[in-house]
């Protein structure tokens, strides 16, 4: 068994590139596998009165919710 390839610098380049790629894939899987959790109460962002005909009057309420992954979700709710 010959270890001549251990003296080749390109061998170490490929070794480091492989280790880096494995770490990136591992971190990506760990990030995606984390469940999405709500970390704040819904915050009312806007409220819009919408009138269809003379008998129909509805209100659209828009809420913002923070999550554990740094994202902000937007949800809406109709009120009579």
Q: Could you explain how this protein is built, in words?
A:
The protein has 2 domains: 7-33; 43-79, no CATH class. It has a 3-stranded antiparallel sheet, with no helix packed on it. It is rod-shaped and about 90 Å long. The protein is built from 1 helix and 3 strands, in the order H-E-E-E. The protein has one helix spanning 9-33; strands at 43-51, 57-66, 72-79. The model has no long low-confidence stretch (mean pLDDT 86). With 80 residues, it is of the alpha+beta class. Strand 2 and strand 3 form a beta hairpin. It starts with 8 loop residues before the first helix and ends with a strand.
User: What structural class should be given to the helix and strand makeup?
Assistant: alpha+beta
Work out the helix count. 1
Low-confidence stretches: none
Spatial order of strands in the largest sheet? 1-2-3
Terminal Cα separation, in Å?
A: 81 Å
Mean pLDDT: 86
Based on Cα principal axes, name the global outline.
rod-shaped
Helix content: 25-40%
Strand proportion: 25-35%
Strand and helix order: HEEE
| Quaternary organisation | single chain
**Biggest pleated-sheet summary:** 3 strands, antiparallel
Please tell me the total number of domains: 2
Count the strands?
A: 3
Over the alpha carbons, how many angstroms does the gyration radius reach? Answer: 27 Å
